[in-house]
Write a structure and sequence with these properties.
Elements lengths: L4 H12 L3 H23 L2 H18 L10 H38 L3 H19 L3 H12 L4 H8 L3 H19 L8
Helix pairs in contact: 1-2, 2-3, 2-4, 3-4, 5-8, 6-8, 7-8
Keywords: Sigma factor, Transcription, Transcription regulation
Pfam family, one: Sigma70_r4_2
Organism: Dermacoccus abyssi
């Protein structure tokens, strides 16, 4: 059985005066009803327990704003409980919406569109053309280094060439590729 509205109002007045014993008694008399209101809104027992504690913290801070001539103690207390629970629901929904929007944005950023694929295809074609402009020795050394993932020493061993020779071929090949891939001239200059 719940406490009479008059005793809840008196306890709220005691809490407004800063009496911790008044808050303890208010808590004991109203916890089950406050928790029930919060649980009906949230439907999650753990979240309802946490939110109920927040309700009593808010009551402690705002008890001075209670006006017994405008509402009953129960009405004021349960209105705070309901409002706090609704705020939690809204906050959780907003958080889920932000997470969903972020996931969609991330997905759009990761998944290439048709224009990205067109650009990538053109770049691949250009690299192939530039690779064909290299000497056979440079091209083979670069393919072994970048596509096969071999070290300079491994390439030298595979080719039966001196390490310094392999490094020179790679360096010269990279320079030639860079020159080939750089834009030719500036538009409108």
């Amino acid at each position: 059985m719940s406490a009479p509205a008059a005793s809840i109002s008196l306890l709220l007045e005691a809490v407004a005066r800063g009496e911790a014993a008044g808050l303890e008694r208010l808590y004991d008399l109203s916890i089950s009803r406050v928790y029930g209101v919060v649980l009906r809104v949230l439907r999650d027992p753990a979240l309802a327990q946490e939110t109920t504690q927040e309700v009593f913290i808010e009551v402690w801070r705002k008890a001075a704003s209670f006006d017994g001539s405008r509402s009953s103690g129960w009405g004021w207390l349960l209105a705070i409980a309901h409002r706090r629970a609704v705020d939690v629901v809204r906050s959780n929904e907003a958080s889920r919406a932000r997470d969903g929007a972020y996931a969609q944005e991330l997905e759009r950023a990761i998944v290439p569109g048709p224009e990205d694929e067109t650009v990538a295809r053109a770049e691949r074609l250009r690299v192939r053309e530039c690779m064909q402009s290299l000497t056979q020795l440079q091209r083979h050394a670069l393919e072994m280094a970048y596509w096969d993932g071999l070290t300079h020493t491994q390439i030298a061993h595979e080719l039966g060439a001196a390490l310094g020779t392999v490094k020179s071929r790679l360096r010269d090949g990279v320079r030639a590729l860079k020159r080939c891939l750089e834009p030719t001239g500036k538009e409108g200059s």
